[in-house]
Amino acid sequence: MAIFKYSEIGISGISAAVPKEKSNNLTLNDFFTEKEAKSIVKMTGIKERRVAPSNICASDLCYEAAEQLLKDMAIDKNTIDVLIFISQTPDYRMPSTGIILQHRLGLSKSCAAFDINLGCSGYVYGLCLAYSFCKQKTINKVLLLNGETRTKVYSFKDKSTGLLFGDAGAATLIERNKDAGDSFFSLNANGSRYHFIMIPAGGYRYPSSPETVKEKVFEDGSIRTDEQGIMDGSGVFDFTIQDVPKDIIRVLNESSRSINDIDIFLFHQANKFITDHIAKKMGIPLEKVPYSLDKFGNTSSVSIPLTIVSELSNQLPNETKTVLMTGFGVGLSWATGLLNLTRSNISKLIEI
Amino acid sequence: MLQQIINLFAEILEKNPDELNPNDEFREYEEWDSLAYLSVIAKIDEDYHLVIPRDEFQKIRTIKDLTNYLENK
């Protein structure tokens, strides 16, 4: 079982960047009727999303977030020994974008840098990996970067995905900290459902060709190419309400904590109806469940740190909060973490 | 139980319970959409502490089928 426990390792700072341009889901358009748009907003809670222009990549959003974080915390860049970039919208298919960011950020050549291809579960997976690196006495600090330009992946003319996704980047600094206490993580995978959320073409199983960039019309009226993302919404719902609560209970049991011991529950920001349902069902008070999806949409692995920066910047820097976070989606992959945020620096949200 | 399930559908579909016949195929209602699907599954989970997996729900055609399904659980 992929259960992890760490002691005296913590998050010392978080920052996030979003593009300036907003897209309002209720703005009239040629594809969604007013009724359809209202129904999607009502169900998901997503009112507005940030959209990156063609010249801004996930790495650019992460770069800005990281520069701000390192400046705000006055970090010596030579103390960063690992850079992890988690994204499904990298700059290139090769090399790893994380390596390019090592140079752009002016980090040492003896800093490990690489990419991880994960989506909605990626923040919790990334934290777990960062914590494990910090167990090495030779590692000072780990910089975890989560970045996505999801609006470039999905067709706006897709009934099930067109209004859901937003673009954002986040930077998180992880290091040893005597006051951090114990942290627990559970990581999971179910590859039998890989086709629930995917981009079918453009990899090596179904390579890019003139055929894969042709728009096709589907039964529900959606229009997309095979190089754009697809999502089986009810399949993801089915998975989320069954597997996510079980994973939360597993982590609570592993840590011998109860719902009452947790100050803040950070759910991946995908659908307010679903996560409110999970919270109610588990007896989690809704005031402990912050949301940022109304403003930013689903930003995949960025959604949890973005919610911290956007919604919790007032309460975190001066106190210790016990936080449970859970990410779930593409893979299918899901992960839950329980940790203390102890006087963490939360930088002001950056808009570029 | 049958009346409870009729009321549950009436609430979600914003219809009068009298308009719903237990033998109607609920997917044929004009008001049935993906939000209604999510709402029915969520409400049953709340009221009966049971998540009906999607492949099993697909076999359920009518309000009466759903009632029978829940009664046999």
Could you characterize what this model shows?
The complex is a heterodimer of chains A (352) and B (73). Chain A has 352 residues and is α/β, with parallel strands linked by helices. Chain A has one domain: Peroxisomal Thiolase, Chain A, domain 1 (3-Layer(aba) Sandwich). Helices cover 26% and strands 27% of the residues of chain A. Chain A contains 8 helices and 18 strands. Chain A has helices at residues 34-44, 58-72, 97-104, 122-134, 233-254, 272-282, 293-296, 303-311, and strands at residues 3-7, 9-18, 22-24, 48-50, 80-86, 112-116, 141-149, 167-176, 182-189, 197-198, 216-217, 223-224, 230-231, 264-267, 320-329, 333-342, 345-346, 350-351. In chain A, the strands form 5 sheets. In chain A, strands 2, 5, 6, 7, 8, 17 and 18 form a 7-stranded mixed sheet that branches. In chain A, strands 1-9-16-15-14 form a 5-stranded mixed sheet, sandwiched between helices. In chain A, strands 3-4 form a two-stranded antiparallel ribbon. In chain A, a hairpin with a 3-residue loop joins strand 15 and strand 16 (333-342). In chain A, helix 5 (233-254) runs parallel beside helix 6 (272-282). The longest helix of chain A has 22 residues, at 233-254. Chain A starts with a strand and ends with a strand. The model of chain A has no long low-confidence stretch (mean pLDDT 96). Chain B is mainly alpha-helical. Chain B has a single domain, classed as Non-ribosomal Peptide Synthetase Peptidyl Carrier Protein, Chain A, CATH 1.10.1200.10. Chain B is globular. Chain B starts with a helix and ends with a helix. In chain B, 14% of the residues are buried. The A-B interface holds A 39, 42-43, 160, 233-235, 237-238, 241-242, 273-274, 277, 280-281 and B 33-35, 37-38, 41-42, 45-46, 51, 53-54.
